[in-house]
Specification:
192 residues, alpha+beta, eight-stranded antiparallel barrel, 2 helices, 8 strands, 16% helix, elongated
């Protein structure tokens, strides 16, 4: 004689429940699989970026950490950054000068981007040697640059910029101009 527990799992109701559970499981597994196969497009997401480069944005030769913030579903984004670099002298016989730079970039585009960069940091290095006297100084000030950036969907990027800078430090040497060209000649990095 069958027990009452056997009756509970037989009949059209049990088949309907089993079909519903199977359908939900298949739908969930296909949705999870689709998300796992879809690559993340780092060109349109928020995230930390690390890079190395040569130019004003990198305090001459240096490293940079920045954070990209995507503005909604648009192609606009803003990024704040800070850099630390080797500002001179470039003869390796004298005391090394470290430089810094911090600023913000506004960019437009997906993989190919137009940049507007405003920063403050090391913008000029001057060294003079006369007889046995050597003097050097890193000059600081604001810079405004426009540029181009290419970023792959996986997050690798290359950046170049040109602009103008202005020295705000006290200038005691007659050979120093306050207005100077600014440029990021190459920046290579990865957005995490």
């Amino acid at each position: 004689m069958p027990c009452s527990g056997d009756r509970m799992f037989k009949g059209p109701t049990s088949e309907l429940v089993a079909s519903a559970v199977l359908a939900v499981w298949l739908q969930a597994s296909s949705a999870l699989g689709a998300d796992a196969e879809r690559p993340v497009r780092r060109t349109t997401s928020d995230g930390l970026a690390l890079s190395i480069g040569f130019g004003t944005q990198y305090a001459f030769i240096g490293t940079q950490a920045g954070y990209f913030h995507q503005l909604g579903a648009s192609l606009f984004r803003v990024a704040g950054y800070a850099s630390l670099g080797y500002a001179g002298p470039f003869d390796f016989e004298h005391t090394t000068k470290l430089g810094y730079c911090f600023g913000a970039v506004v960019s437009w585009g997906d993989k190919h981007r137009i940049l507007l960069d405003a920063d403050y940091g090391a913008i000029a290095f001057l060294a003079e040697e006369y007889l046995d006297t050597y003097r050097s100084k890193v000059f600081h000030g604001p810079a405004l640059q426009v540029g181009y950036e290419y970023m792959t969907y996986s997050g690798f990027f290359l950046r170049v910029e040109l602009g103008v800078s202005y020295i705000v430090d006290p200038v005691r040497w007659a050979s120093v101009n306050r207005f100077n060209p600014a440029g990021t000649f190459i920046g290579l990095g990865f957005k995490l």
